[in-house]
Specification:
The chain is built from 10 helices and 40 strands. The chain has 630 residues and is α+β, with helices and mostly antiparallel strands. It has a 9-stranded mixed sheet with strand order 1-33-34-36-35-37-38-39-40, with helices on both faces. Strands 2, 3, 4, 5 and 6 form a 5-stranded antiparallel sheet that branches. α5 packs antiparallel against α6. The longest helix has 18 residues.
């Protein structure tokens, strides 16, 4: 059933440099600042400063750095702190007056600074930064080959897109406006998400028992802003993040689990009194409300807590009452709220729609400001039923013309992630090139209830496959989609699904593009940064179950042309996952190719170097042109 559509026009690989995407937003009085980012293919980096947005929707540049973001306006409304990246250097913290003047740099840290958090009295800024051991990570003129070996004694020793951890733990810092920096934690454990309890005390997130042993649990701790002992404030029920104070209560986002059973858990809003007089309470329903942390820190206004909820592909900005509930949707229906801020009665959000990477919306006024971009192709919503009667949902991005068009089935990663109502550059590029792109959210995805997300635990390759193929069938029932010319692609979990479908339903596809995939759970367990818990949490502990749920087990069934695509420095789904699949296919004589991107990690398609992103798009279109256009 088709329930809605958006009529629009075209995105080509070379148009990456035309995609201006708004990021973080801040508001104080009539001052609204948004960060923007645009890929620069010539310099092979991202550029963009802060722009001021006026209530009538007009804009003007406010800073002129290579890349300025994470802006925060001081509580007294007099200063703005933000991160500035010059070229490919590390981000450093800057501050400048609201009424104009030159930005002043406050930090010069070898690995850069994290997002600023103003003290209530506007005199200091807290932030998190990784501090390298002496002699490592550019602290001397010698290269990495001159560094001493790393002694590793824990399972949680590295993470994708960051690297090794023990020799550069994240530490909590405070900087005065004169540039005096103080470290408040000693690097014996990682810290994140600082917030001010008051002018003299900070709260932050750290692993359970300050990371004494490997754990997926995290708690809330305090430390005096002038330095001193770290103290436990709140013991979380699972994972805790993004604490903040409103009135006499502490709020945060969190999950609830035991052991390693942390996967596919909805994040909810939690609350506890600052004086410790009562136990923490979850304010949102565990099954139906899943908070999207990627959209930013929740904030309180006079009526409740503003946050973003994942709901059937929409990222809805909601106001949750202080005593809990599902909340009122302020904006984001059939859209994706990427960031938001509030001051007094003014609520501002960056909203992505099927035809726009992002617009700044003054919520409740109807005013939206769009930045320069490119026109997009038409998107329609798909819904139907799987073979067991379970409802399925997704989208179809269509090229111009009546068709029938060749079809690309694109499966998202995660699996506890989603395709959304927001702008998706990949689908737009493929549709511009003439392909109808099917975007399913099968069981295992986020935003459809926690039970939907957990339906694939111990069952990879079962109900998720049924849902993916059922959404594809809804699309193929349309006269503008060619059921005889279908390809399948995806990254991470989507790469897993591509490999699995190629083995078990290969007759339905002309070719496959499997990217940064999990192909074998046995080696993933020991090589991925999260493999030591993720495999057991999703697949169980039985090696035979791992084998049964591994696409590589069925490689002898894959006979269609198969592209194995990976990043050389991917530590989430390590390169060996690609190598094992490629070698197995080539030894069988399958028409297979392997494409490896140097210097990239797991996030290549979203935040990789602009030239690599364009080169990847070129390669994808060449592949589908070879097998679907004829």
């Amino acid at each position: 059933m088709l329930t809605s559509s958006v009529n629009v026009l075209a995105v080509r690989p070379e148009d990456l440099s035309l995609l201006t995407t708004p990021g973080t937003v801040a508001v104080s009085g009539d001052l609204v600042l948004v960060s923007i980012a645009t890929p620069d293919l010539d310099s092979n980096t991202y550029r963009g400063g802060l722009h001021r947005v006026f209530p009538d929707g007009t804009t003007m540049p406010w800073t002129h750095g290579d890349r300025d973001n994470a802006q925060r306006i001081s509580p007294d409304g007099r200063s703005v702190a933000f991160l500035r990246v010059a070229g490919k250097s590390k981000p450093q913290l800057y501050v400048m007056p609201v009424d104009g003047g030159e930005p002043r740099r406050l930090t010069d840290l070898p690995l850069g600074a994290g997002a600023p958090v103003w003290s209530p009295d506007s005199t200091r800024i807290a932030f998190v930064a990784r501090v390298p051991e002496a002699g490592r990570y550019g602290t001397t003129d010698d290269g990495p080959e001159a560094e001493a070996p790393r002694r590793i004694t824990r399972l949680d020793y590295r993470v994708d897109d960051v690297g090794f951890l023990a020799d550069r733990r994240s530490r909590l810092h405070v900087v005065d406006l004169d540039g005096t920096v103080s470290e408040l934690t000693d690097g014996s454990h990682d810290v994140s998400d600082p917030a001010w309890l008051d002018d003299s005390t900070l709260v932050f997130v750290a692993p359970r028992d300050l990371g004494a042993v490997e754990t997926l649990h995290s708690d809330l701790y305090t430390v005096p802003a002038a330095g001193g002992e770290v103290s436990l404030l709140v013991r979380g029920a699972g994972e805790t993040s993004m604490p903040f104070v409103a009135g006499t209560s502490l709020y945060w986002l969190g999950t609830d689990f035991t052991g390693i059973d942390a996967v596919a858990r909805n994040h909810g809003l939690w609350k506890a009194p600052l004086d410790g007089s009562a136990s923490p309470v979850r304010l949102t329903d565990v099954e139906t409300v899943d908070v999207e942390r990627l959209s930013g820190q929740p904030v309180a206004d006079a009526e409740g807590v503003l946050l973003v909820v994942r709901n059937r592909g929409a990222l809805e900005l909601r106001r949750i009452p202080f005593d809990g509930g599902p909340g009122e949707v302020l904006t984001g229906s059939e859209a994706a709220v990427r960031s938001f801020a509030t001051d007094g009665s003014t609520v501002v959000a960056v909203v992505s729609t099927p035809d726009s990477p992002g617009q700044v919306e003054f919520v409740g006024t109807g005013v939206r400001t769009a930045f320069s971009s490119v026109p997009a192709r038409r998107v329609v919503e798909l819904s139907g039923s799987a073979s067991d009667g379970y409802p399925v949902h997704g989208w179809l991005v269509l090229p111009d013309g009546e068709g029938p068009h060749p079809v690309v089935l694109a499966v998202h990663g995660g699996p506890f992630m989603y395709h959304s109502w927001g702008f998706f550059d990949e689908a737009q590029v493929y549709a511009t090139a003439g392909y109808a792109v099917v975007l399913p959210n099968p069981r295992g995805s986020a935003g459809y209830g926690q039970s939907h997300g957990q339906a694939v635990i111990g069952r990879f390759g079962t109900v998720d496959v049924d849902d993916v193929l059922s959404v594809l069938d809804v699309a193929l029932a349309r006269p503008d989609c060619d059921a005889e010319r279908v390809g399948v692609m995806g990254g991470s979990y989507g790469g897993f699904m591509t490999s699995w479908l190629s083995a078990h339903h290969g007759e339905r596809f002309k070719a496959a593009w499997s990217e940064r995939a999990v192909n074998a759970w046995d080696s993933f367990s020991g090589s991925s940064d999260i493999g030591y818990f993720f495999t057991d949490a999703y697949c169980g502990t039985d090696p035979e179950a791992h084998r049964v749920m591994s696409p590589l087990t069925y490689v002898e069934k894959i006979n269609l042309p198969f592209a194995v695509v990976h990043s050389e420095q991917d530590w989430r789904c390590p390169l060996e996952q690609a190598q094992r699949m490629f070698v197995a296919l080539k030894r069988r004589g399958v028409e297979a190719e392997m494409l490896i991107f140097p210097g990239e990690g797991h996030e290549l398609t979203r935040s990789g170097q602009p030239r690599h992103r364009k080169q990847r798009f070129d390669a994808v279109l060449e592949w589908w042109g070879r097998y679907l256009k004829s």
